[in-house]
Amino acid sequence: MGKLVGKRVLVLRAREQAASVTELLRARGAEPVVMPILEFHPPTDPRPMIAAIGSLAERGEGDERHGWVVFTSANGVERVLTEIARQGMSVEALGNMRVAAVGPATASALTKAGIKVDLVAREHHGEGLAADMLAAIGNESPKPSVLLLRAEVARDVLPETLREAGCKVDIVSVYKTAAPSGPLVDGLVVRLEAGDIDAILFTSPSSVNHLCDALDAHAAHAENLLSRAGIIVASIGPVTTEAAHARGVKVDVTARPSTMAALVEALENHFDKKHIS
Question: pTM of the full predicted structure?
Answer without folding.
Answer: 0.74
